[in-house]
Write a structure and sequence with these properties.
Blueprint lengths: L3 H16 L4 H13 L4 E8 L9 E3 L2 E8 L2 E10 L2 H4 L3 H90 L8 H31 L7 E5 H18 L3 E4 L6 E6 H17 L6 E8 L5 E6 L34 H11 L3 E6 L5 E7 L4 E3 L2 E2 L2
Parallel strand pairs: 6-8
Antiparallel strand pairs: 1-4, 2-3, 3-4, 5-7, 7-12, 8-9, 9-11, 10-11, 12-13
Helix pairs in contact: 1-2, 1-4, 4-5, 5-8, 6-7, 7-8
């Protein structure tokens, strides 16, 4: 004869076996079969879900319904058909505990299922995102390659164009200079001398524009290598200002140089630094009024950087124009001399030259009007008397 302890043991062995089933349906049926082996039970059913009518344990006649509740909520109910309620009575609490444990197992199964769904969703999301990134990366590679080819083609075109234009321009410059200076005798009419001078000046201006366009294009394409030498800062400023004073005299604008340490040296490309400073000077003169003066200075900062500053007293640049004037072929909306219109390459080229040297170009408004254009070079390029400055 099977004892109560044996019945309890058999029930919990069956419960553990049911919880090991991969699917809840077979597990429920297996548990129901185990419940039917208890004394006084004729039939048992474990109902998952249900219609909600068995919200609480109820007993009517020979039928007993026990809800399957856990901390996660209700999962259904267990229904028992009793042939002998008295014989079943000792096992009532045992069945409640078994049903509660089965409800906890259903919690665990639901959590696993939710985790599996979440994992599948994340894996699918990662897969979709990976595909999108791969497609975006492929488009970027194609776009960058196209842009690189376009930039290289532009640089090659400008290089070829430069070669084709420089040849006749050099001839124009050479012959007009010969005519202007009368190396083979007078031209005969003063107007010819004037005209040859105008042609020579125009050709020189066109050559300068051509050089600016080509240099800027090479820098933007990353194909420009600077020729680093030791440059005396004082001589650099003096020579550049001397070349620009002609433009200043024609515009009735003076150029003043602040005292510069004669031992101050910068390591960089001499031609490019002169070009950058000349562009800043030319720009300042264009925006200056009659009788005004452009101030030029060069000094080492407390951090050891070199600052080449060009200050004018012109109308300045509107804050909304600061970004625009740094783009090639763009110009400020401030008033400019009618005869001094430029190409809009001066500031962009000066900034590109500064960046080639690891520096930067900064445009600052001045109190009382005007601008300060500061070409700043890093301390590693600044020497004093031929030695690096600590």
């Amino acid at each position: 004869m099977t004892s109560a302890i044996d019945h309890a043991g058999n029930l919990f062995v069956a419960l553990n076996a049911a919880r090991s089933f991969p699917d809840v349906g077979p597990a429920s049926r297996f548990l129901a079969l185990a419940l039917e082996d208890l004394p006084g039970v004729s039939a048992a059913a474990v109902v998952i879900g249900g219609d909600g009518k068995a919200a609480a344990e109820c007993e009517g006649g020979r039928s007993l319904s026990i809800p399957m509740h856990s901390h996660a909520g209700g999962h259904g109910f267990c229904r028992l058909d009793l042939t002998d309620p008295g014989a079943f009575q000792p096992y009532r609490d045992l069945v409640r505990n078994a049903v509660a444990l089965f409800a906890l197992d259903l919690d665990y199964r639901a959590a696993l299922e939710g985790e599996a769904h979440a994992r599948a969703y994340l894996e699918d999301a990662v897969k979709r995102r990976t595909t999108e990134l791969e497609e975006t990366n492929e488009r970027l590679v194609v776009a960058l390659d196209r842009e690189h080819r376009a930039s290289r083609n532009k640089t090659d075109f400008l290089a070829n164009l430069s070669h084709e234009l420089r040849t006749p321009l050099n001839a124009i410059l050479g012959f007009t200079e010969t005519m202007r200076d009368g190396l083979f005798g007078p031209l005969g009419n003063p107007r010819y001398e004037e005209y040859s001078g105008i042609v020579h000046h125009s050709a020189h201006h066109l050559m300068a524009i051509l050089n600016d366009v080509l240099d800027l294009s090479k820098i933007e394409a990353g194909s420009f290598d600077i020729q680093t030498v030791d440059v005396a800062v004082g001589r650099l400023v003096a020579d550049t200002c001397a070349l620009q004073r002609g433009q200043g005299r024609a515009a009735h604008v003076g150029v003043a140089i602040a005292p510069i340490d004669p031992d101050l040296i910068v390591r960089g490309d001499d031609r490019l630094l002169r070009q950058a400073l000349a562009n800043l000077l030319s720009n300042a003169i264009k925006y200056s009024g009659d009788g005004e003066c452009v101030d030029v200075s060069a000094a080492r900062t407390e951090r050891g950087e070199l600052e080449l500053s060009v200050r004018d007293r012109g109308p300045g640049i509107l804050p909304s124009d600061l970004d625009r004037v740094m783009r090639p072929f763009e110009q400020s909306s401030a008033p400019i001399r009618a005869q001094a219109a430029g190409t809009g390459l001066g500031l962009p080229l000066a900034r590109s030259i500064a960046r080639l040297h690891g520096g930067e170009l900064e445009i600052l408004p001045r109190d009382g009007g005007g601008l300060s254009a500061i070409l700043r070079l890093p301390a590693v390029r600044v020497l004093h008397g031929g030695a690096a400055i600590a």
